[in-house]
From TrEMBL:
This is Deoxyhypusine synthase-like protein. It is an enzyme of class 2 (transferase). Belongs to the deoxyhypusine synthase family. The keyword Transit peptide does not apply. It holds the Pfam family DS.
Length: 369
């Protein structure tokens, strides 16, 4: 069998090079080549109408502005259908939606002096302590509203939060919507795998001490995300089965929450055994430590998280997500026509009922057998 290969024929980089030419012709080896493969796989196969794209986001991406600059445009182009994020990414993205100011600085500042001055540092990003207090105040006021006073999953919670943030954006004149506001407008459900592990969750917990009736129910999230993966096969064109893609920025808990949808379907619910059709990850974690952030697509096959027949459609690039995400975004927006919005948030109940009915039917068949 011939070894897949392409001759490396280097030529000088021209002064007027564009992002597509740079990636296609100059990202020739090592992790630059893996980043090229991700860009090409996404543009040629994943970002098609029949593929449901789930995105997981970890790490401090939004303080650096990538929620507004990269993730929101991907949603508006229809390239991301549902998201699992750390609560911290959603919290810090709110600063931009509320018109607050963050600054690029140095990672070598004196943190004792910063504390004395009331300045917060996230590596080389700094902002005033009042940014946190103002964001906390906004969250606490909003979630006391009547629509929040019930049991709900994080997708509904974030959709409501995004609705209110969008109104504030209009009032303060924010030109480019933040992550939650864009997801609200595009009907993209956003889940958080650990709802208590962020300042948003901390404020929710604080209000529970004074009688708030809002309860975040993780079981709703587990079933809703499994339902999205389950119904992805129905999203294809007439006579063609739809596909599911997992695009992972970083790793951590959001990565597992995205990938566990498939074991939830076959291992726990006893439904189809399939796995995601596409697996793309940008990570700086090593696989040999046994941590999930570094777990490879081939390892995920053993869990049923990735379809073994689709291993050629999996790529892992070992690099900093803050380098890869803007490059990937620029490439696919240049190369791909916008897709129609699936508005999966609006279809949550429909997909949930489909999963519930098929699960109950499988239980009946199993009991009679």
């Amino acid at each position: 069998m011939a070894i897949p290969s392409k001759k490396i024929a280097p030529v000088p980089i021209p002064s007027d090079i564009g992002v597509v030419d740079l990636i296609d012709n100059y990202f020739t080896a090592y992790n630059s080549a893996r980043l090229r493969e991700i860009c090409q796989l996404l543009s040629r196969e994943v970002l098609q109408e029949g593929v449901t794209v789930g995105l997981s986001v970890s790490g401090a991406m939004t303080p650096a502005g990538f929620g507004v600059s990269a993730l929101a445009p991907l949603m508006r182009h229809g390239f991301v259908d549902w998201i699992i994020s750390t609560g911290a990414n959603l919290y810090h993205d709110l600063h931009y939606g509320l018109g607050m100011k963050l600054y690029s600085s140095s990672p070598f500042l004196d943190d004792v002096k910063l504390r004395e001055q009331g300045t917060i540092r996230i590596y080389d990003i700094i902002f005033d302590y009042d940014v946190l207090l103002g964001t906390d105040d906004f969250i606490r006021k909003i979630i006391q509203a009547e629509p929040f006073q019930k049991r709900m999953g994080t997708a509904e919670f974030h959709n409501l939060l995004g609705k209110y943030v969008r109104e504030v954006e209009k009032q303060v004149g924010v030109e480019h919507s933040c992550l939650l506001a864009t997801a609200y407008e595009c009907g993209v459900p956003i889940y958080t795998s650990s709802p208590g592990d962020s300042s948003i969750g901390m404020n929710v917990a604080a209000l529970s001490l004074s009688g708030s009736n809002m309860i975040i129910d993780p079981a709703i999230d587990v079933n809703e995300t499994a339902a999205i993966a389950y119904c992805a096969r129905e999203s294809g064109d007439a006579g063609v089965e739809g596909k599911s893609a997992a695009v992972i920025i970083g790793g951590g808990s959001p990565k597992n929450f995205l990938l566990q949808t498939q074991p939830q379907l076959h291992e726990v619910l006893g439904l189809e055994e399939r796995g995601h059709d596409y697996f793309v990850q940008v990570t700086d974690a090593r696989p040999d430590t046994g941590g999930l952030s570094g777990a490879t697509p081939s390892e995920a096959v053993s869990w049923g998280k990735v379809d073994p027949e689709e291993l050629p459609s999996t790529v892992v690039c070992y690099t900093d997500s803050t380098i890869a995400l803007p490059i990937i975004t620029a490439y696919v927006i240049n190369q791909c026509k916008p897709r129609s919005l699936k508005r999966l948030y609006d279809r949550r109940e429909e997909m949930y009922r489909k999963l519930q009915q098929d699960y109950q039917q499988a239980q009946l068949v199993g009991a009679s057998g």
